[in-house]
Amino acid sequence: xxxxxxxxxxxxxxxxxxxxxxxxxxxxxxxxxxxxxxxxxxxxxxxxxxxxxxxxxxxxxxxxxxxxxxxxxxxxxxxxxxxxxxxxxxxxxxxxxxxxxxxxxxxxxxxxxxxxxxxxxxxxxxxxxxxxxxxxxxxxxxxxxxxxxxxxxxxxxxxxxxxxxxxxxxxxxxxxxxxxxxxxxxxxxxxxxxxxxxxxxx
Length: 202
Known about the structure:
By secondary structure, this protein is α+β, with helices and mostly antiparallel strands. The protein has two domains: 2-48; 59-202, no CATH class. It is built from three helices and eight strands; from the N terminus they run ααβββββββαβ. The strands form three sheets. A four-stranded antiparallel sheet has the order 5-4-1-8, with helices on one face. β2 (76-79) and β3 form a beta hairpin. α1 runs antiparallel to α2 (28-48). The two termini are 45 Å apart.
């Protein structure tokens, strides 16, 4: 393929010179030189490329990756204090990070909806009342298995895609579930299907 492209670029160069080679008035000569240099650089760069060999891509798993992303789509009714229910239809990408000791922790979320997963669990004394400060009973690290259950049980919605990665950022070009609203133009949704045998590492 590279050889064919190389031939096409050479042919284009020959045609360009034959058509425009005698233009040297009104600064066209300098323009022609710049264009020829640019075209020659393309030809040189292309000639260095060879047909790519079929190099097997190493499959990422819990052992050779640093991050695990889960794109979650909410689908539940939130019960308000007055007893009414509010439908939840938001999405969020949650990122888990592997520590040096091999333990996984909830690292970040793409939206505020699941930011609570990245923070310690705080237990207060008494019932919540607006404007009333309560005593803190305990502050503990979030149970990673409980977070997994929250995301995969189906009670609150569903995990649309999940995958290992060495990139801290979710792949929103493949799955835009949970894509932050402040990003550039929305892309078409191309969902990454959950692969058979792809295990959640916690």
